[in-house]
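User: What would this chain look like folded?
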Amino acid sequence: MSALTAPLSPAAVEALRSLELRIAAVRYRDAAEHCQALAASADFDGCLAAQDEMRMCRCQLEAAGRLDLIGGAA
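Assistant: Here's the prediction, encoded as structure tokens.
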């Protein structure tokens, strides 16, 4: 049995896109704080995973033209 679904409205698509970008910004800030804490405890290897997360989120935000969400240039 397959469920019939209607396509999302343009407003709904935009709302989901905006939410996704805001979540990426929160993940970026969380990873940055985590990286600072790891660096303070001299866990430099642990910083690498946090930096990877930051880089992934930054690339997503940059591609969307929304670096302003993390304090960068738009």
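The chain is about 70% helix and 0% strand. If you want, I can go into more detail on any region.
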